[in-house]
Design goal:
Length: 211
């Protein structure tokens, strides 16, 4: 039991968590995850793969999405084990939040992810099982990075059967579930996020993002 407890880790919660004010809202975890979900959906439908909007969309995935995942990887060292022992806390607060946000999404994946082939949903012990050690967390983050890079390179084809490629499935479902997480924002943050979304829509050149 002691070994199991030593390996299991959770976001550190023994100190009062300050409200995070992001220096750049467009780089906040929930904003990047939501925009990435939008782009992956458009890519999957084949809307941006062969259009003039392909480059700015792929640039976003390369710059913002991969940037977020790199921050989550770096911030993983602020996750702690079950007895509350911090691995290290000498990490920027925003970088910490990147890892903690990813951790929460991983935890929700088995319960929230949906598939037309699985009427009863995904098993908590199956392909969407949440990571329970830092090594597993880093492996999953690396997998997300690799698949995003494959999307940018055009190696993931639109309309592909996600269930036939577990890494691709886990990546698409990570951003799908992350998009649905409720996030509490101040009024100023909501206004700022709306401005960023308008800029994001301009980036897509008027593509209907409701697909």
């Amino acid at each position: 039991m002691a070994d199991i407890e030593k390996d299991f880790f959770v976001p550190h919660q023994s100190e009062f968590q300050p409200v995070i004010g992001y220096r750049e809202m467009e780089k906040s975890p929930h904003f990047v995850v939501r925009q990435t979900h939008t782009l992956l959906g458009l890519y999957y439908q084949g809307v941006i793969r062969n259009s003039g909007n392909s480059k700015p969309a792929k640039d976003y995935l390369h710059d913002f999405t991969l940037g977020y995942l790199e921050a989550a990887e770096e911030g993983s060292s602020t996750l702690c084990n079950q007895i509350g022992e911090i691995i290290t806390s000498d990490i920027d607060l925003e970088t910490r939040e990147a890892a903690h946000y990813a951790f929460v999404v991983f935890a929700y994946l088995p319960d929230k992810a949906r598939s037309p082939y699985l009427a009863k949903g995904f098993s908590r012990k199956g392909m969407l099982k949440a990571p329970t050690t830092q090594r597993q967390f880093l492996t999953r983050i690396k997998e997300l990075r690799v698949v995003i890079q494959q999307v940018v390179a055009g190696e993931v084809k639109p309309h592909t059967t996600l269930e036939a490629r577990p890494p691709v499935l886990r990546t698409f479902k990570f951003f799908e579930v992350g998009n649905e997480l409720p996030v509490k924002l101040t009024n100023d943050e909501k206004k700022q996020e709306q401005l960023e979304r308008e800029k994001f829509n301009d980036l897509l050149g008027g593509i209907d993002i409701s697909l």
